[in-house]
Amino acid sequence: MSRLQELNTQGQSVWLDYIERDMIQNGDLQALVDRGVRGVTSNPAIFQQAILGSAAYDADIQRLADTGVDANAIFEGLAIPDIQAAADVLRPIYDISNGVDGYVSLEVAPDLAYDEAKTVSEAKRLFAAVDRPNVMIKVPATVAGVAAMEKLIAAGLNINVTLIFGLERYAAVKEAYIRGLEKRVAAGQPVDRIASVASFFISRVDSNVDAQLQKLVDQAESDGDKECYVSVMGKAAVANAQVAYQQFGHKFAGPRWGALEHKGAMVQRPLWASTSTKNPAYPDVLYVDTLIGPNTVNTMPMDTLEAFEDHGTLARTIDADIAAANAALAGLAAVGIDMGQVADELEAEGVKKFADAFDKLLAAIETQRKELA
Fold it and tell me: Largest CB tally within 10 Å, which of 49, 121, 233, 236?
C-alpha cells in the first residue's frame, strides 16, 4: 500500500487541496485516487491559481464571453463543470464508502461570509447547480456562517465548514451540526446521507502565534525569558488541533448523539486544513505526522502530499499525548498569548484573503471578457 492508503487504515482520509481542469482531463486526478486520495477541496485562491494559470479555460472563457454574461457568471461556467467532473471521478469512492468520502468542495462567494440569509440561498443554489450527491458546499465558520450551516444541514445539504481557528467557534460548529440533524429528524426527514466536515486550519495558527512570540523574544531582557518564549514556538497549531479532536470525541458520544447515530447520522469529522508547513525550520510533514487518527480528514496540497508519501510517519498521533497538548496551550497563555484573539484575527484575515483572491480572479476574467467581446 501507498502511505496514503495506509493512512486510510488509521481512519484518516486524505483529500487533495487543489483542483484544475488539466488534472481531471489528463487522468492525474484518477491516478491520485488510485494512490489513496479520497476527496478534493477548493477555495477562491485555488480557482484563481487554476484559471489564471492554465490555457485550458481560454476556449470556455471565449464561449461564455460571447453570450454577454458577466465575470461572475463566467467563473461559475468554468468552476461548476470542473467540480462536476471531479465529483464524477470520485463517485466510486463515495459509493464504496457509503457517503463518508468521495467529496468535492465548492465554496460560496467569500463576500457573503457575514450574511446568513444570502449564504443559505447561495449554498442551496450552488448545490442544485452542481447536481451531484458527492459535492460539499463550503461555508465559512463566521457567526453568520455557523447559523447558515445549521439551516443548510436541516435542508439536507453536505457542508464543509471552513476557516475554523479556535476552540470556542469549533464548539459552536459542532452544536449547529447536531441541531441541524435534529431538526431533520423532527421533520421526519432522513439523516443517513448527510455529510459534513469541520475544517480546522492549522499552519496559520503557528504563523500568527510564532510572530507574537518572536516579538517577545526580541523584547526580552534576559536569556531565561527568551528561552521561555522560544520553548513554546511551533506548538500552538498542533496542540490546538489535538485538543479540538478531544472535544470532537466528547461531543459525538452519549445519548444525544446516539439517538441520531441510531438513525444513520454520520459524525462531523474534523478536517485538518492549511497543512503545508509555512516555516522552513519545521518539518515539511509536521501537520500531517502529528494529526493522524480515526474519523479525521487531512486535506493536503500536492507538495505536502508528495512529501508525506516519501517520508511521512504512520502512527496514531492525534491523541497520543493530550496532556502535553493542554500543557502547551497553558504555556502559551502563561506568556500572554490569547488564543481566542488569535482565532478572531485569523478568521478576519482568512475571509479577506479569499475575498481578495476572488476579486482578483473576477477582475482578470472581466478583462479577458472585454477583450474577447
Answer: 236
Q: What is the pTM of this model?
A: 0.95
Segment 311-339, tens digit of pLDDT: 999 999 999 999 999 999 999 999 999 99
Q: Among this protein's residues, is 138 annotated catalytic?
A: yes
| Burial of 258 from C-beta contacts in 10 A (0-12 / 13-18 / 19+) | exposed
Output phi, psi for 358, to 5 deg.
-65, -40
Predicted confidence (pLDDT) per residue in 160-205, tens digit:
999 999 999 999 999 999 999 999 999 999 999 999 999 999 999 9
Q: Tell the burial category of 215 from Cβ atoms under 10 Å away from its Cβ (0-12, 13-18, 19+).
A: exposed
| The CA-based dihedral angle spanning residues 231, 234, 236, 240, taken in that order and rounded to the nearest 10 degrees | -130
Residue at 93 is within a domain: yes
Please count the structural domains in the chain.
1
Q: Which of 118, 124, 138, 235 is catalytic?
A: 138
- Domain harbouring 298, CATH code: 3.20.20.70
